[in-house]
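Today's session is about reading a structure prediction critically. Students often jump straight to the picture, but the first step is always the sequence itself: look for stretches that repeat, for charged clusters, for runs of hydrophobic residues. Only then move on to the predicted structure, which in these notes is written as discrete structure tokens rather than atom positions. Here is the chain we will use throughout the hour.
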Amino acid sequence: MGDILCHEIMSCSVITIDYDTDVEHVWELMINKRVHAFPVVDSTNHVLGIVSLHDFLNQINFKDNSKSGSNVIFQLNNFIKKTTTLHTHKAEYAGHLMSKPVITINKDQHVLELFELFYRHNIHHIPVVDKHKKLVGIITPKDLLLAFQTLIQ
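Below is the predicted structure for this chain, in token form.
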């Protein structure tokens, strides 16, 4: 892979969310933007965690579902909708749902270091940070494949 660094293949236009973003809004962003994960950042752009489709699916009890899948849809819908009562036992905000600690990579690290991170942690989105640990981009396996394609041609 030569001397390709992470900042050379990362996507710079990252859609981020705040700790207090409603779960329902995060779901709408996933659908409307066709993005499967969002870094959760603080006011100084430090990565606090990440919310992915996997985090939503973890809220479903697949063991109790019928073959029709209607129970899956019912469970997901109940999870996504904001609770109207004073008390709840489910995540209402991105900060409650996010996976943490989040695996990040420095923008100046070699892209070969991504392989182990994707494989060892079974993740598909790695936020890229600068030397101050501030978010500057994100890398997915697709970005890595595109880098390979460029080298092959």
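Discussion point for the tutorial: Helices lie at 6-9, 23-33, 53-57, 70-80, 94-97, 112-121, 141-152.
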